[in-house]
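Objective 1.3, modelling of assemblies. Example input:
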Amino acid sequence: MNTLHLYNTLSNKIEPFEPITPKHVGIYVCGPTVYGPPHLGHVRGPIVFDVLRKYLILQGNKVRYVRNITDVGHLVGDADEGEDKLAKQAKVEQLEPMEVAQAYTDSYNWVMDKINVLKPSIEPRATGHIIEQIEMIQTIIDKGLAYEVNGSVYFDVMAYSEQQHYGQLSGRVLEDLQAGAGNQSRSLEGQDEKRSANDFALWKRASAEHIMQWSSPWGKGFPGWHIECSAMSARYLGDHFDIHGGGMDLLFPHHECEIAQSTAAHNHAPAKYWVHHNMITINGQKMAKSLGNGIMVEQLFKGDHPLLAQAFGPMTLRFFVLQAHYRGTLDFSNDALLAAQKGWQRMQTAFKLLNNLPTVHEGATIEADDLLAAVVSSLNDDLNTPQVIASLFELARRINLVNDGKATMTEATKATMKSLVVDYCQGVLGLVSEDAGAGDGLADAMDIIMALRGQAKADKNWGLSDQIRDALKAKGFEIKDGKDGTTWNKL
Ligand SMILES: [Zn+2]
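Predicted structure (tokens):
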């Protein structure tokens, strides 16, 4: 495909991606509810949307990427009942809820750095945007699409449905929803206040002992889970932005409710494209505490889990995630991770040879333009990263052929190959050499130092060139001068 196409869950179709404002892209991705350490289920979405973001940047777009932190309002039942997840964990750990939020935001971002996910342009917190949420709720009440009962405010799904299509994203119809709702206990807290079982909370009245509560026009309380994303996306990306991302598990109720709230407040849907990644399984099973298969990311890095025979590095994890298309399921197992680790090592070993490969002026037997075209076309085809990786393996094969003297290439082909490695493997896929550190720029810094040392040698300033080599050696870098230039290794 010649231009980027994405599967839009809103239309159930693959559509050409056209930003609302040319060369400017606004992306909102639902971030974590920070009440526990990050597990394997937390890495797929960030990696997928990081690839999308990096590809859009490579194409010359200015991208504003907003990923929120949910630190209030997400209740244990994922609906309108149960304790707040943060408040519950705070009691267990005997901490302030904001201490819990800070600790797990930090551990989440530590993992994001390790797996080479770019930091968001803006990382807004729900508790930092109570005013925006209250204002939006008031707007929805003023439009007659929400109502207050005993200090709580509920979204009126039936009233909304008379004007708009509720269920457009998830494909659910109200009759199904009512049948489903009928199976739930109506005695759950607050359920009897609702006009219809489909209605959902925008604001919940807080009991006196509830730790997190704020003043509002409806008394002391806290926001519902869904309103934060509507309020914060509008605040930072405007009421009509390009891409809203998240996991398929958020399709309903979270994203359906977001669309309803934003449409109620602004008279149109918030995002043009809704992009959802599929979920992960572990040894073919859904990850669940009760199954004992919940693997924390740190446990993966340390090999510290009964289901793992060894530790796996952050780049193996990233490579493994990108070997599957984001809309398919992804099954973690020790064997599958091991295969990914071997594949990634094989690719890296070949790519490291590239700089020192010889070139010919004429009679070259291989080229790489076809691979570059294939990689771009695969990315354009709804981010088909498994196909991109297949092309990169073919690149590795051709590099090895030249290295073994079984094929020849021109300088132009070498430049194309470098672009594939630097712009696409390292750049878009974000797969960087593990020993160079994920995204810390070491390789780039070393290129600069090597160039300066090369200049010193050209100037016959042997004292300076030896001084650079010896100083680097003292820090564990081995510098080798060969006839084709200088290479370096971190020992
Ligand atoms: Zn959200």
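The chain has three domains: 5-277, 281-436, 442-490.
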